[in-house]
Structure formats: C-alpha cells, structure tokens
Amino acid sequence: MKRLIESYFEAWKKDKNRKPLIVRGARQVGKTYSIEKFGRESFEYFLKVDAEQDENLKEVFKSKNPERIINELSAYYGIPVIENKTLLFIDEIQAAPEAIVSLRYFREQMPKLHVIAAGSLLDYTLNELPYAMPVGRVEFAYMYPLNFKEFLLANDKSGLVDYLSGFSFGKPYSTALHQRIIEYLRLYFFIGGMPEAVRIYVESKNFIEVEKVHSGILTSFQYDFAKYGSRKQREYLKDCLLFAAKNVGRKVKYTAINKNVHSSYLKNAFIKLEMNRIIHLVRKTKSSMVPINQYVDENVFKPLFLDIGLMCNLSRIKLTDIKDPFLDFEGALAEQFAGQELIASFAFYDDAKLYYWTRDEKNANAEIDYLLQVENKIYPVEVKAGKTGTLKSLQVYLAEKKMKTGIRLNTDLPDLAKGLKAVVNVKGKRRELTYDLVSVPVYLAADLPSIIKQTQNLSK
C-alpha cells in the first residue's frame, strides 16, 4: 500500500543533519507498516524492537551509552547494527520511557545511525514523561489515515491521481472524470482511510467485512481508555467519542453530552481523545492575519474525527446502503472529509491544527468552516455538501475582515470567479463587497495550498 510519507522517510535518510525520528499518530493508521517497509527496502539491515512485546529489553535502554545499547540489541536479535547501513526501529516506544530518553544519546554520540521510533499513545506519554524530554535531539513526523489520493492509489486508480495532481484553472476540466472521481469520493466517505479497512475493501469489495474492521478498531480504542483513570473517566471518554462522531462541525456543548456531569470532566475527556489523536479539536479563532493562533479561544471548539469511515461506523451508518443520500448527515460528512484532507495537506513534520471562525450575534450569526493559512495569508473556507448553497457567512467574513479572496469546496466543477459583487450587513451597516471566489471540488481539499498559490500567480 503506497503511502506518501515514504518520500519523507527517504529524504530524512539522506539528510546529513537528521536526528532520531519519532513518528506520531493514532493506533492503526499504518505507522509500523510504513516504517517496516521503508526499513526493509532502503537499508541493508533492519532491526525492529517492540517495546510492548519485549518488556525485558527496557533495562537495555537505561544505559546512557548508545554503543552499549546497540551491542546488546544486536546480540539479542542477531542483526548487525552498523551506521549508515542499519535502521533501528523502536516500535510502541511509549511502553519504554527510558528508550525515549536514550534517543538523545543516539543523536549526540552516534549521529550517523538511523533511528526511528513510533508509538500510538505517545502524546499522552510525552506529556507524563517522568524524565527530561530530549528536546532538540529528536524530530517528529505525523501520520494519519490514508488521504483520498492514497485511497485512489490503493484502488489502482493512479490515472485519476495524476489527473488531480495536474489540476490547473488554465486547463479544461473533464466532466466525465469529475463524475468518476465523485463515485470514489462517495466510497471513501464510508470506507475511510484506515489501512486495514481499505485493504479489506480492495481485496474483497465486501462492505460487511469493512464494517467488522471499523468496529474492531473502535473497540481497540476503547480498550485503551482503561489506562486513563477511573471507571467514570472511561465513561466520559466513551460519551465524548460518540458525541464527536455524531456532531462533526458543531460547537461542543457539554450539556448536550451529559447535563449531570461537570463540564471540566468532559473537557478533560476531549483533551485526552485529542492527545490520543482519535479526534482533532477545531478551535475558534478571531484571527484574520498571521499568527492564526493569536486570538484562539481554547474553550470553544468543534470535533473532527480521526477517520470518516470510523465516524460513520459510530454513527450507525450501514455500508450496504451508502447509495442512498443521508440528507441530515451529508453536511457533516463533507465537513469531516474536508477537515481530514486539510490536515493531510500539512507537511509531515508539522503537527496539524485547524481553526474556524464564528460570529454569534442576535439575528446576525455567521460561521466559516475552516480558516486555512497559506504562507503568511489566511483564507476562509466554506464547505458545501452539494453543488449549491449560500455564501452569506463567507461574504460576511470577507467584508468584516476586509479581505478579498474566499474558498468554496463543493461537488461542482472547479471555477475561478473574479470581481463578484455582494451587499453585506456588517455590524448593522450595509457594505458593498467585491471579492474573488476560488471554487473547487471538495476532493481537491488537500491541494488547496497549491491551488491558492496558483490563483495568486494568475493575478500577477
């Protein structure tokens, strides 16, 4: 299964200034598979240590001498550990905090040795680490479920991927290919990007088997909840998990989850789900210029699920009926997909964060689904489930922030409209607005940064 992060691993391997690499991501997004594939294909020797399975090796990593560590590991596994020839992979490193600390000494004393670590509950472990974190001696990469292009590649549709990658407003756009891509987009909405679910679908085309995979993954997530405190705290995590799946794109209101539980307990549950990367919290910001996180309200957020397929499973959507429209849920599906793809548009070394904007005034509410930073400019992004929909909130934001360009994601053909006119009510005053609208199919969400740069060049 082709993953785009593989090219990042190759660049890291060749980087003379590389540091031990820690790959972060939720359970079962493909970290172990991708690193093992990279290690076996790109190195003469590959040594994998599973910190959960090989508990007796924790003592090995207590040494501050990396040469001693690799000598013991090499003897234990019978695999040579040679600088520039061996990839040392420490999997589930959260189970051995001593190993995390040891990465510092690999960087300082054996910088030519390639070392990668990965862990599924790593964010929580790093936050609770009883030792000094090797700050500045390690680097990070972030993995998520397969994005839409990776899903197409898994389904042997490289031609469609090439077509999407070559998108330009200066080229004619094929209606036939657009409809074909929409068909696969619909599949992705419900299968999602968890590698095992995609593999099962590609091999069997059996939706029931895909549902079984989704259910198994969600059960494994909930087994992890046992590590986070009391029975009540585990119940709060389950409640918030279910709420997040059913309320993507909606501001979290704690009373809608459980009015008998203090909001602080539920907020803590959301933070833990975010630390485990099961959900992303899209936070409210007032910013219209960089830094985008300057005016963030940490207490106001919308949930975004790890994977759209898992979201549908928790929402009890049966894959055998996906051809029927889900009128009350289509908007949430579109917003989830767009958010998931926007996260995929971040560089692999960048811990993706998403933001939204809202104005809560009597008879004058407005909300922008996502604010996207491209270079040092902010762009409002509106997501529509179909081909049509009003742009009132987008126009309000552009007028209020005195900005010129808005983005619309929908299921229609791409269009670049310049000099559109609108009359907008801003703070009780009518204001004439002239703006440009970049409208692209939602399946191009991950390409928005490059598309926006393209439109900027067209304007010059």
Summed up:
It is built from 17 helices and 13 strands. The chain is an alpha/beta fold and 460 residues long.
Q: Briefly, what CATH class of the domain at 5-142?
A: Alpha Beta
Helix content: 40-55%
Structural class by helix and strand composition? alpha/beta
What would the CATH topology of the domain at 5-142 be? Rossmann fold
Look at the structure and name the CATH superfamily of the domain at 5-142: P-loop containing nucleotide triphosphate hydrolases
Give the end-to-end Cα distance, rounded to a whole number of Å.
40 Å
Which descriptor suits the 3D outline? Answer: globular
CATH architecture call of the domain at 5-142: 3-Layer(aba) Sandwich
Number of helices: 17
In terms of quaternary structure, the protein is single chain
- Indicate the proportion of strand residues: 15-25%
Overview of the molecule:
By secondary structure, this protein is an alpha/beta fold. Among the domains are: 5-142, Rossmann fold (3-Layer(aba) Sandwich); 356-459, no CATH class. It has 17 helices and 13 strands. An 8-stranded mixed beta sheet has the order 7-6-8-9-10-11-13-12. The chain has a 5-stranded parallel beta sheet with strand order 2-3-4-1-5, sandwiched between helices. Strand 9 (366-374) and strand 10 form a beta hairpin. Helix 1 (5-14) crosses helix 2 (31-42), helix 8 packs across helix 14 (308-314) and helix 9 (195-204) packs antiparallel against helix 10 (207-224). It is globular. 38% of the residues are buried. The mean pLDDT is 92.
